[in-house]
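[audit] Reproducing an earlier prediction to check determinism. Same input, same settings, fresh worker. If the tokens differ from the archived copy the diff job will pick it up downstream; this log only records the rerun itself.
[audit] input (307 residues):
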Amino acid sequence: MYDLIVIGGGPAGITAAVIAIHRRLETLIIAERWGGQTAYFMDLEDAADIHDMITGEELLGRFRQQLDYLDFSRVYDRVVKVSPVGDHFEVITQDGDCFETRSLIIATGAKPERLNVPGEQKLLGKGLSYSVVTHGSLFLGKDVAVVGTGRRAQFAALELARYAHQVYLFAPELLPADQPLVTTLRRTENVTIHEAVTVQEVRGDRYVDGLVVEAVDGARLDVAVKGIFVKLPRRPNSELVRDWLALDEEGRVKVDLYGAASHPGVFAAGDVTHISEQVLVHIGEGAKVAIEAHSYLLAYWGETAEA
């Protein structure tokens, strides 16, 4: 039986597994692949060269290398069922393996809603992104588009306006008229808002060079941009624990200040608990829940979890 099983191969899960191993816990991380929101990189013709800080991706890469070396601590597979069984947990994978553990960390992330239009898949990482935090700074002085209506899209547009030449916000719905954030957007000189429009095509050969949208009256607009950021709603990947962990109204795992979920011995971190898109934040959350899981094991299992 393992001391800890981590489900998820994104920033929070990878960090949690490495911290737990360093604390000499019998640890297993199960993921279909490494990466999470860092699974793809942005390849641009003339991207801005940013080297003034250590990025979350660089730090995460070092943690990932340690897990690549410790092949006994990782399994590449999809978890299909997680259940509490008495005082421990069973984790079953798609390949039919069953693992038992004294504690769990849920770091399964969230799934971004796709545009599902021509050009989206082809130009992913070639100017199209789902994370302003990760890739926004690459578009210094360029024209970019944000697709979305909610607060995440609104904040993304304002963030990009600080260094992009022009920002186009394409909102599938009408923006709320009485929100301060929307008022600020409308007053920002280099932000142009198009409401009640539907994206029809991401245009470009090797790299993004435009976006085609359609209004409710059927009128089409073709806007030249070098970057597109899709900020549609994201759905937390919490299906595995929906029946026995407390979730909020949006399906996110509820956690306390220490990252503990509603069932003893279960912790959660990353986008499955809240949408932050900050790799460094998720790294910190992964470290925190690994430490808290260790404390739980010491308190309830004694010498089993001694470092």
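[audit] rerun output stored. Observation attached for the diff report: The chain has two domains: 2-111+234-305, 114-230.
[audit] end
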